[in-house]
Design goal:
By secondary structure, the chain is an all-alpha fold. The chain has 1 helix and no strands.
């Protein structure tokens, strides 16, 4: 039940040919070719105008505010959960102590 099932290895059905041996070629020194000139890629340059800079600053500010709000809400959720657990622990302890005093 707990043993793995291993697949059966199929046997080859066709004629297996050995790999072809490639003979190395000799390099004759002295015959050099000039390096090919690669054209420089034409990428558009980014123009930073005051409008785009203002948009970048506004977008960055919005991201920081959203991330900050999420982190603060997570911290608040942890604090509320901790406080409720502490209140539950106090109630349970008082119930256990009150029950022990009655006996």
């Amino acid at each position: 039940m707990f043993r793995p099932k291993l697949p059966n290895m199929p046997q080859p059905t066709s004629i297996v040919t050995p790999p072809v041996v490639v003979e190395p070629t000799t390099i004759t020194p002295g015959t050099s070719t000039p390096p090919a000139t690669v054209p420089a890629p034409t990428r558009p340059t980014v123009q930073l105008t005051p409008g785009t800079a203002l948009a970048l600053v506004g977008g960055g500010t919005a991201v920081v505010l959203v991330v900050g709000a999420v982190l603060v809400s997570l911290l608040l959720a942890v604090a509320i959960t901790g406080a409720s657990v502490a209140v539950c622990a106090l109630v349970i302890r008082s119930l256990v102590n009150a029950d022990a005093k009655r006996r």
